[in-house]
Specification:
Helices cover about 30% and strands about 10% of the residues. It is α/β, with parallel strands linked by helices. It is globular.
Length: about 180
């Protein structure tokens, strides 16, 4: 299956805990040999608030597979729905909207397209993991085992760091670079 297909985490909820868990769950599927793995950004069940959906798009920028998808019984969560300005505790610039931040995250993802395809081809030919915790490649570094859901390697040449709390609730995190 891993050579020919992708998979997603299933019908998750629009809760910050599900966003944080999605990182660890994608790691687990890497162990099963499924590198093209992802989740429903903003959650499939429940109504996503603007700050959660925005943060989830930022986190999902690095996922191997990402889509904004929800059930019909929930409120719309397309990026344009959140076209209102960020709260003062999130940004000093009162002209930036949640939609602007989501748009930037999506553009960042598109800039990685060639890299992603190259890495997936390499994994197809040689095996390996695409989205992995730091300790996969830096097992001798004790710091690589800390805060694994916020520090990851994407392929063999890109290190990512994500914040898995609501946009308006972030208290800052010390990311680690081995």
């Amino acid at each position: 299956m891993q050579k020919y297909a992708y998979h997603w985490l299933g019908d998750n909820w629009s809760w910050v805990e599900y966003m944080a868990d999605s990182v660890k769950n994608i790691y687990e599927y890497q162990l099963f040999g499924l590198p093209f793995m992802g989740c429903d950004l903003c959650g499939f069940n429940g109504d996503a608030a603007g700050d959660l959906c925005t943060r989830w798009h930022q986190v999902g920028t690095l996922f191997p597979f990402a889509r904004n998808h929800n059930q019909n019984a929930t409120t719309d969560q397309e990026p344009y729905v959140f076209n209102f300005t960020l709260p003062k505790n999130v940004s000093d610039n009162h002209n930036i909207t949640y939609t602007d931040v989501i748009r930037t995250a999506i553009r960042n993802r598109y800039t990685l397209t060639r890299y992603y395809y190259s890495q997936f081809w390499k994994i197809n030919e040689e095996g390996g993991s695409f989205f992995k915790p730091l300790f996969f490649d830096f097992g001798e570094d004790a710091e690589a085992y800390k805060i694994i859901e916020k520090n990851m390697l994407i392929g063999n040449a890109l290190k990512g760091s994500v914040e898995t709390t609501n946009l308006s609730k972030s208290d800052g995190v010390d990311f680690y670079f081995p």
